Every structure is written in structure tokens, then in C-alpha cells.
């Protein structure tokens, strides 16, 4: 198989991993030698017609796999063609793409071949060759095989910026049914190991004066959960996510709507990916991490353990907590402003700054590009008082369900697949 | 444009018109020096004409500001950061806007800390546009490699909206110090020879190479990483507007990827389950 055919196959096999981040690592640049730089901010070098960012060369080393996970195109019993890159091919491809400014670096994953240790060694060889033989300073994300030996995990963190282990399914029963070889306790154990080493290296960076501290995955670890492949509700998914953030200090939990694949397993009914549900989960995840919401608070906006698909989770929460509103734009504490639907974290900071210099009016918010129609019912301002009864009106929800938002965009397209 | 004979507000220095000729289109240090001199001399914004090499010469008759510098003017750090960015904006009023804000902040101390004030909001918008332009340059610039008598050289053609080439050349030095490269743009070009940066006037698209051997593989990757079951062309265009497409080698395959998507998904959703072949061997090579 020629290089182009391999690339087509092994990139196709890697696209179900949602992560493409290239941010949050240490700063490096090539003025003292080597090739490449990382400056903290990730860069999306292109966008595919699925709207997703292309930041890294995201490929599998091989799509052969001894595991038989039903949701995976590369599972042992799938009929897809198999291929494998050599280390030299991958190194050359990464460097050729990087030199032309196509990518920020490499995201390398692999099917499990021979043994977890063997597979992990192969991934490490690619990263080590890039770093040691070619002075590559770009971003490297390595998929980590949870069952691999601890010293291999330690070496992976030396070369990689980020490591990740995918949980894939948020409950043991689903894993048993759909991914029988996956071992949730082993995954937890490996995440624990990584978390320990990441924290240790971070601490060493902060305290070391002379000698260079040991390096270990400065961009931390992340994971992914598939949404819609099993019957887990949003409560279970968000709960698992919150647990992972707390236990292992993950940088990110990615949610990947289960997407139909060629050569699918009969265990999973074919359906279009639940893009809207995935989007709501990301919004909820954001509220958890940056807006001071708790999991149960967010879920209270929906029904029966599921988020409201029609409106965003912050608005859903607010509509069920109308007694907490309106809040005064000029006197409400920051935490309350963060709960106003339509006010983002950055604009809350700007409002707090502007309040020091004078009264802030609703008209001022327009200049900050705040969606006035959305925030107005929930705010009191010197130039604004919502119409009496509006906040308690049963029509408020309908009024705020805007056409043209993400919801309106994503649904017809999904439905049209059936027409 | 304001003429010297236009009515002037009352005031000692206001009767006279001043003209600041900046040598670069995005020279923050020169603007700051001029602004300090103007402030020290008490010259109000409406008496100042700001000119760059892009403006036609000889239209304005103002004299340069007096050279005496006042004491350094304390301004918020955020304002300086925004001003450094906004000075690269293509908007011809950028210098005047900044000076007017500085002038008014003398009598209204909180002004530069009020993001909701209309001119501050405009300044923030300009800074945001420049930051976005720079970010898109880091992202969408594509090098093509050519052979030269001195060895390989990487050459890119890019069309920024604002005056950002000088400011952003450093990013490419830090990343590609080991290469020798040229970035060609319509207004300004940057060249790195492995040791030093040089800038030259604008170039034409035809001055850059038309292709590169790696682009075929890159298009293959772009096509393969795309998931047809998640087609969302509006999201793609929001982040990668069409104006960039003509200089992106991968953009050529976007139309066919979009056209083929629905058919590919229908096949996946309607597929009959084929019995798996026997479990494959663990190797894969």
C-alpha cells in the first residue's frame, strides 16, 4: 500500500477521536535550534466541512486491533482494510506537514497490536524520534494504552505534550456489552498514574532553580466519552465527567456523538450522530468548569436526567429559577451576573470593570455585543425594566427560543437524512 | 479630510494645524512619541492630521509638533495593549482615535478603563480584528518549498487585512528559525535567511510558487479526517471564511466533499450488516 493510501485509511480511522487541541503546553521556540514552537494558544490550521478544527496530524499508527469494541470502526471483527505506518513514514509526514505550516504537530493513536506494551513502545518511538533525532518542538499528543507498563507511561510523558486515555462509555455495564476487553479499573489506575506524574512535574517546574526539571505531559491529560452509543443519560455522562475532572485533574473531557461508521456492528442501530445533544453537553461542561454551576443544578434545567435540547443549559436553568431574577446590572455580584443567560464570562469581567467608572446601562451591553433580547428579561438597569409579568409569563420560553441559533441549524439537517 | 482653514476650537494652540508624518503604517513607538509631544504642547486632537506612507503626499499643510516631550503619561496596561494592536488596523482613523482618547482621558480619568464607552468599544473592536487577522495568518499561511542555489527556501503568499506583517514575522522566526523563508503579501514582505529578518515592499501572488509536492498528501489528509455524517458547512465557513480559500491548497476539495457527504451517510445508515470475517490477526503489517 502506498503512503497516500495508508494516510487516507489511517486518518479516516482516527477521526472519531474528537480531541484536536494544541493549547496549554509549555512555551518552546526554535531560535536555539530545532524545528517548531508552542506559544500557549492552540492554532486551528484548517476546518473541514464538518466544522471541526484541524490542528494536528491525527492518525493511527495502525488500525489493526485485537480489541472488539462495537462502536469502533477498527474493531477486530470489522471488515475494513488494515494498514500500518512505519516510524520513518510518520516522522517524515509530520515534519513535511509542519514545515509547510499545515499543522501544530502530531496526535498519534493506535489499535492494540500484539500487546499493550508493544503498542505503547511503537507510539513512543515515533515521538522520541521526532524529538531526539529531528529536534521537533511542535505539539505531540499521544494516546496512552492503559495496560502498558508504568515505565512506558513515564517515557510517553517525557516526549508528549498531552496524553489521553479514552473512557468511551460512562458505565461499566455498557463497557462490558460494547467494549468487552476494556478495563475500567485499569483505565482509572493509569489516569491516576498520569495525574501523579503531571502534578509532580508541574511542581518541579515551579520550584526548580538550576537543573531542568523532569518533563511530563505539560499540557496534561484528557479523555473522551461517546454519546449515544449506549443508554447512558446526560446525568450519568456529566457525573462521570465531573468525577474525572475532580479525581484526575483532567484538562478536558471530550464528548463525541456516536457517528455511523462503515462496517458497523449490529449491536448499534444506525442513526445520525446526536450533534445537538453533544453540543449541549459541551455547554454544560463549560458551565461546570467556568461558571460555578454544579452538575445537579445544570440537570435541574432539563427533565429526567437529560438536558433540554431546545435551549442552552444556562437559559434552561434560569427559566426554572425565575424567582432569582431579575438581577441588577450595577449591584449584582459577579457570581450572579455569570448566571444571567447570554452573559459570557469575559463580558461579566468587562461589566465589573465598567461599573467602577459609572452606571452601566443596557445600551452599553450592546457595544459589548451581548445578545440584548436574551439578557433583557433577566436584568435590571438604569435604562431598562422588563415589562411587568414578563419574567413570570409562560410565553417567555417561546419568545427566547430564537430561530437561527444552533438548534435550528442542526436539527433540520439531521432530519433531512431520513427524507 | 480636515483642512487647515477649517474652523478651529478656541485655545492657545488650537488655531494652528499640525501634521504628523509617520514612516510606517503600524509604528506604535512613533505614534506614542508624537502623541506625547502633542499632549505636552497642549494640541487638541482636532488640530492634528496623522499621515502614513499610504496617504497621498502634499495634501495637508500642518507643521510637525514641537519636539519637547512631556512627562510619561500613566495609562492602563490594557489600553496600551489594545493600542499596540489597533495601530496595525487598516482603518485610517486609528491614530486620531487613539490620540483623542488619550486627550480626553486627561479630563476624564476613568475613560480608558471604561470598555462600554463608544470609542473604547470601537478601539476594542479594532484590536480584536487585528488579533484575529494575526491568528488567521498563523493558521492559514502555507509555505511552498522551492530549490535555490543556496538550498531549499520556503515561500508563502498571504493576504492579511491589516498591517500585521512586521508584527507577526517574529512568530514565524520562532517557529521556523531553522528554515530560510519568505512571506509575500500585497503590502509588505518578510524574509528570513536563518539569521536576520528583512522587510521589502509588497509583492504579487505570481511571485510565489504555484504548487508544492506535499499538497497532494495534505489534501488526502483533509478529505479523510472529514466526517460526512457531521456536515456543518456554516461552522466551517465561520472559522475559515471563503476569502482565504484561494490560497489554501486543501480548499480545492471542499466542494466535492460536501457534495458526496449525504450519499456516504445514506449508505452507512442503510447498510446491511455483513457477517464479520474471521477475527483478524493481531499484527497488521
UniProtKB/TrEMBL annotation, chain A:
A Pfam match: Radical_SAM
Residues of the Elp3/MiaA/NifB-like radical SAM core domain: 55-283
Keyword Metal-binding found: yes
Keywords, alphabetical: Iron, Iron-sulfur, Metal-binding, S-adenosyl-L-methionine
InterPro entries listed in its UniProt record: Aldolase_TIM (IPR013785), DNA_rSAM_put (IPR023874), Elp3/MiaA/NifB-like_rSAM (IPR006638), Endo/Exo/Phosphatase_dom_1 (IPR051675), rSAM (IPR007197), rSAM_sf (IPR058240), RuvA_2-like (IPR010994)
GO terms for MF: catalytic activity; iron-sulfur cluster binding; metal ion binding
Lyase as UniProt keyword: no
Protein name: Putative DNA modification/repair radical SAM protein
Residue ranges that the Swiss-Prot or TrEMBL entry lists as coiled coil: none
Organism lineage string: Bacteria, Pseudomonadati, Pseudomonadota, Alphaproteobacteria, Acetobacterales
Cofactor(s) it depends on: [4Fe-4S] cluster
From TrEMBL, chain B:
Region (Disordered): 47-73
Residue span(s) of domain DUF4130: 93-250
Pfam families assigned: DUF4130 (PF13566)
InterPro entries referenced in this protein's UniProt entry, alphabetically: DNA_repair_put, DUF4130
Membrane-crossing residue ranges in chain numbering: none
Ranges of compositional bias, category Pro residues: 63-73
NCBIfam families per UniProt: SAM_7_link_chp (TIGR03915)
Protein name: DUF4130 domain-containing protein
Annotated source species: Teichococcus aestuarii
